[in-house]
Design goal:
Elements: H1 13-22, E1 26-28, E2 37-40, H2 56-66, E3 71-77, H3 82-93, E4 99-108, H4 110-115, E5 120-123, E6 128-131, H5 142-167, H6 171-179, E7 182-185, H7 186-191, E8 197-198, E9 204-206, H8 208-229, H9 234-244, H10 264-278
Parallel strand pairs: 2-3, 3-4, 4-5, 4-6, 5-8
Antiparallel strand pairs: 1-9, 6-7
Helix pairs in contact: 1-8, 2-3, 5-6, 8-9, 8-10
Family: Belongs to the peptidase S14 family.
GO molecular function, one term: serine-type endopeptidase activity
Pfam family, one: CLP_protease
Length: about 280
């Protein structure tokens, strides 16, 4: 970047850390019996590490299966690729029936854009909506950086416009909150128009197994971002991590996953490497 136009917008590591601490593992207290519920308990965009991720293609397929009926979208996500988030938002907005969004734990970054597609947005009192400017990894001289800034500007404006349209706030105020990387609790989100009402307290729970899995995968995602920020390509970063971690493109095995009660030597190695990258 900027010579390469295959650009991805990321969720930065501090957001992943916040999600690990405050929202990882939050799930519905009871399984929904209806077949019109779309769950987004993952990053936004395809996830190379797990084979999962929330994409516009998957959401469009789910909406076709639901048909001409109201839809419930449950979100607990640290975000991911902002460009994919905008695509998912537009797919949901095209649905002819009402959409109810439930922010179960956190709708951060690209996930906050998707949340704005709800005709009704419900949020837990201890849940968060987080908004910030488009975040990418770039390198080069000052002319390259100026080009990157100019390239990103319309996307930041598009996000501010989406927030302003849904909330009734001024776009300039939304842009300021994006500049400040703002976390809004349930009551603040409702006060500012980012949500309409609180979820009942008994509608969510913390799944400890899911929490450990969420946090473990995020450690690897954060390590990848650190390597890319240091100048490595994504393919090189993934190859280096795989020398420690194991098999790409599949669900992580607890035996080789940090924080999941597996190989203690591997866990210590990855944690040490991650800390060195962050420092």
């Amino acid at each position: 970047m900027p010579a390469e136009r295959g650009v991805s917008a990321f969720t930065p590591s501090p957001v992943l850390d916040r999600w690990n601490a405050d929202a990882a593992g939050v799930r519905p207290a009871a399984l929904e019996s209806g077949d019109n519920v779309i769950t987004m308990f993952d990053i936004i965009g395809e996830d190379w590490w797990t084979g999962g991720g929330v994409t516009a293609k998957k959401v469009a397929s789910q909406l076709r299966a639901i048909g001409d009926r109201p839809v419930e979208v449950q979100i607990n996500s640290p975000g991911g690729d902002m460009f994919e988030g905008l695509a998912v938002y537009n797919v949901l907005r095209e649905h002819p029936q009402p959409i109810t969004v439930k922010v179960m734990g956190m709708a951060a970054s690209a996930a906050s854009i998707i949340a704005m597609a709800g005709d009704t947005i419900q949020i837990g009192a201890a849940s968060f909506i987080m908004i910030h400017n488009c975040w990418v990894v770039a390198m080069g001289n000052r002319h390259d950086m100026a080009e990157v800034a100019a390239f990103l500007s319309p996307f930041d404006q598009a996000m501010a416009d989406v927030y302003a349209q849904r909330t009734g706030q001024k776009a300039a105020d939304c842009a300021k909150w994006m500049d400040d990387e703002t976390y809004m609790s349930g009551s603040i989100a409702i006060d500012r128009g980012f949500a309409d009402e609180l979820l009942a307290a008994d509608q969510t729970k913390v799944d400890e197994k899911a929490k450990a899995s969420d946090a473990s995968v995020n450690e690897i995602r954060a390590m990848e971002l650190a390597l890319v920020a240091g100048g490595a390509t994504r393919s090189d970063a993934r190859a280096r991590i795989n020398k420690i971690k194991g098999t790409p493109g599949a669900a992580l095995d607890p035996a080789d996953t940090p924080g999941a009660g597996g190989d203690s030597e591997l866990k210590a190695s990855i944690e040490k490497l991650t800390q060195s990258f962050r420092s």
